[in-house]
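Recall that a protein's primary structure is simply its ordered list of amino acids. Everything else, from secondary elements to tertiary packing, is in principle encoded there. The following example makes that idea concrete.
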Amino acid sequence: MRRSDYYRLRDGKAYFGDFDPFGDFDLIFGASKLNLKSVDMPIRYAARSYGETQISRFRHGVMLLRMVVFAFFKIKAQ
């Protein structure tokens, strides 16, 4: 990502609201709004080697689903 694109994403963050606790959707939705290209890259997850996860699958999953629906109406249904 170019620095100039990051600044554009950062400046437009308020468009989708400030409710993304993880930050990844800020990048994905912002890039879509700015018509930036993205590339799918495979990721391999492994078991944690220490500690416990702070993420709840269902509670945070519902939150992320709501964010996707919200962004759909902000981006596609205009």
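The radius of gyration is 15 Å. The chain has one domain: 3-37+56-75.
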